[in-house]
Design brief:
seven-stranded mixed sheet, 14 strands, 282 residues, 27% strand, alpha/beta
């Protein structure tokens, strides 16, 4: 495929919630779909994680389906894969779907893991209808990959069963998609800090507040997620230009997130809370 000829680098949030979809009247403004972020880079459509937000993205893609779509998975927990059985382009014959992800810990290939575990027989959609040309790319975490003139760096994240962060570099601009990671109590994560250096946008897993994380009655230590306060520390230490607070906790209502926004902006003025439908131009 010839490289597309667009100068745009646009990040669009299709799902910003963590752990479980949260539809309802208290999550209308920020959205209740689980993790799914699209990056339109030089005319290419790239997708990071396939939570329930992927269904709405698929409707948009079908209006003008490109010959190829690129998907990247941080890991394979439910809230990052559960939208895939409803991803319409996967059912379109002739469409090329390139799926990238780390080799699972049990050592089986990404293709085997995906077909036997992600595309589960209990899916409500008949998966025999998947007619797209699906190509699986095993990514070795810590190594870089190239898609035409797009350079993508990867790094391990601190999450149960592991996860992988992606830094996307194109035309002098950069976005670090860093979700499902837990900070360390005594230092900044050297892997996260390295890939965050000077990024135009850091999308950071800030599922909790510091108060929730350290709550003596129900602490979240060891659950694999971080706080917005730790995200601000990373952003400042790495010279990040803009910070997106992402992977919102299921019980955090729109009103709660509105109040959090005020605190975040006081600590880091070039920050925002991700919400469904938001487009950010890099």
């Amino acid at each position: 495929m010839e490289p597309a000829t667009s100068s745009e680098f646009i990040v669009k949030f299709w799902g910003v919630r963590g752990s479980i979809p949260t539809p309802g009247k208290t999550t209308v403004r920020y959205g209740g779909n689980t993790s799914c972020v699209e990056m339109r880079i030089g005319g290419r459509r790239t997708i990071f994680d396939g939570g329930t937000g992927l269904q709405e993205l698929s409707k948009d893609l079908m209006r003008d389906l490109p010959p190829e779509t690129y998907m990247f998975f941080t890991h394979y927990h439910w809230d990052h894969i559960q939208g895939f059985p409803f991803f319409t382009p996967a059912f379109v014959e002739g469409h090329c779907l390139k799926i990238h992800g780390a080799v699972p810990q049990n050592g089986e290939s990404l293709e085997k893991h995906f077909t036997e575990r992600v595309l589960h027989t209990n899916s409500p959609v008949p998966l025999a209808g998947l007619h797209a040309d699906m190509k699986f790319v095993d990514v070795v975490c810590g190594e870089a990959l190239q898609i035409d003139d797009i350079s993508i760096e990867t790094t391990p994240l601190n999450h149960p069963n592991t996860a992988m962060g992606y830094r996307i570099n194109w035309n002098g601009r950069s976005v670090f998609y860093c979700t499902d990671t837990e900070h360390f109590p005594d230092r900044l994560d050297e892997h996260v800090l390295a890939l965050a250096q000077g990024a135009d946008l850091l999308i950071y897993d800030a599922m909790y507040t510091d108060e929730e994380y350290h709550n003596p009655k129900s602490p979240k230590v060891g659950w694999g997620h971080s706080t917005w306060q730790e995200g601000v520390k990373i952003a400042k230490a790495a010279g990040v230009k803009n910070l997106a607070i992402f992977h919102h906790e299921p019980t955090h209502s729109d009103d709660f997130l509105d109040e959090m926004t005020k605190e975040v902006l006081e600590a880091f003025p070039n920050a925002f809370l991700a919400r469904e439908g938001l487009e950010w131009h890099v």
